[in-house]
Amino acid sequence: MKKTKKILSRSLIAKILLLIYDAFAVNFSYFLALWFRYDCNISELINGSSSVTDAPIHFEAWLRFIPINTVVCLLLFSLFKLYRSIWTFASYREFFNVAYASLVSFAVHMVGITFIFNRMPITYYFFGALMQFIMVLLVRFSYRFILLERSRRAVARSKKSSRVMLVGAGAAGRMILHDMNMATDSADKVVCLVDDNPHKIGKYIDGLAIAGNRYDIPNLVEKYAIDKIYITIPTIKPVDKKEILEICKDTACELKILPDIFKLEDGNVGKSKLVDVAIEDLLGRDPIVVDMGEIFTFLRDKTILVTGGGGSIGSELCRQIAEHNPRKLIIFDIYENNAYDIEQELRENHPELDLDVLIGSVRDSRKIFDVFTQYKPQVVYHAAAHKHVPLMEHSPQEAIKNNVLGTYKTAFAAALNGCERFVLISTDKAVNPTNIMGASKRLCEMVIQSFDRLIKEGKFEEKMRPLYEHDDSEVEDRFVNSGSKIKTDFVAVRFGNVLGSNGSVVPVFKKQIAKGGPVRVTHPDIIRYFMTIPEAVSLVLQAGTYAAGGEIFVLDMGAPVKIDSLARNLIRLSGYKPDVDIKVEYTGLRPGEKLYEERLMETEGLRMTPNKLISICNPTDFDADELFDNIEKLMHICYETPEKVKDFVESIVPTYHPAGEHGTTEKTRAYEEQLEAMAKA
To answer: Residue 186 and residue 681: Cα distance in Å, rounded?
Structure first.
């Protein structure tokens, strides 16, 4: 209670002092106007002279008008709420209130003094009004400026001050500069700007020099002792972004960037919108754009099933499908935590979406058959798979059970339950595989191509068989009674690594950097193809619209990236120097790992689609009957003699050549020798 009274007492005192100040300011401002009008001669103003006889008359009019002016102004200021605002947080609203109050009081003053007492000089009216506005405004905003400066100095004392360079002196750069200048909770201090526009270089914004262009950044970092670089160009082209980042990452400064303008959802620009530089920013290519109209037409009002829907690719498939008005979306995953996360996200972002989330394994033929029997999905995106190469090398039977048998059982259930299109998510590791994971995905491609071929030849009932370890008469009955209803188109989409996925090296490198290193790279010359998850999924969806059945679509992943360069760039983007602050270690290729990945096998060629980033590889010939016999044998081997899995897979996948003890095949060794020869040359 005492504390409340004390606060009220202080507030009342402040209001009384402000009233006294305003009473003085509104009259003294017009006195100054009169004084300046008569050359700042106080004696002449009061007593007059032989050359100036009107001065005493004007002075007397001003003096006699003081009581009226004081009462009118204080009433107007009260009407415009100038005594109710909390001036600690004064902003544009308070500024305009002062301006409106001053404008009205000026009009009243001009009319009142002229008609009641005497006509005054023109300069008296306008200069007096201006001085009144400045004096009334100054006392109110000065309190906020004093508090801001105190807070800024307190933060600077409590934190190590960081010197910041802004790259980009356009509208966004100016807004971020203003935001940082007004902030009280940050010790960051902008000391210079950089811009490529030659007409801006050498000029100033808020007292700060635009000191050069992008090529001057290294020298300016040293000259101004820069700690952080903020890239503030939301409309920057990818190639320019890559070049600027390549220059900046060698400075050991902390880097942040303003996202592309379309990612700024609310259109506001400020320091809070700056984000860490992502490794995909260094790809230096335009974002991949697909024809969303085709996808919308294909997915609209369809029941769609995504297996492995909680994984990196599966969850992004669900996000993009949800935006295209499906009749129903079914997420099927074995891992309930991931499935729960994507379910909550979709329910929040798409409350109108008809969504079911199911927990189960694609290895369970009864479960997967029940799902297809109940929901009758028209389109299936089969993303469920084991993908970690080293882990699968140690458990090859699990790669076969989940990837090959899971794909077979899911595809079989899809065909028997009227599915229109089945899209397998494959990988470039299926091309000339040196590991069991890649070989299992190659078998998956062969399975769906065989399914599609038999359906189109009308031999599905004759050649196909259910695949399960247990007796399942229900599946047998459905298969026998399927008749000619089987119309499913089976296709596969093959692509490489995706940035930020669960199996990507990027999250691993980031964790190693956060711990202070070392960052472990398997080989200095290892290369991979990379694409962002949304880009890959968009192309997968569009490839699905092109499907006629039996195709393996191959996505153009752009230029390959050296993993060593990727690791070193991540270290630099984190503000450290490779091999100085954080060491890079080479551990050797892991079991089953290739030095490089390929998009096609030697026997495959490419056909183009309407999207130049999506190609179709020509199918290779193989005996479907023999394949199904071998898969059935492989299933029994997985459960009975798992140690023989790799040998049997090698016998049925002609392109599979397991790596030796040190993770190297003859082809990889030849490639290494070629790289060494090029380096020596």
So the answer is: 52
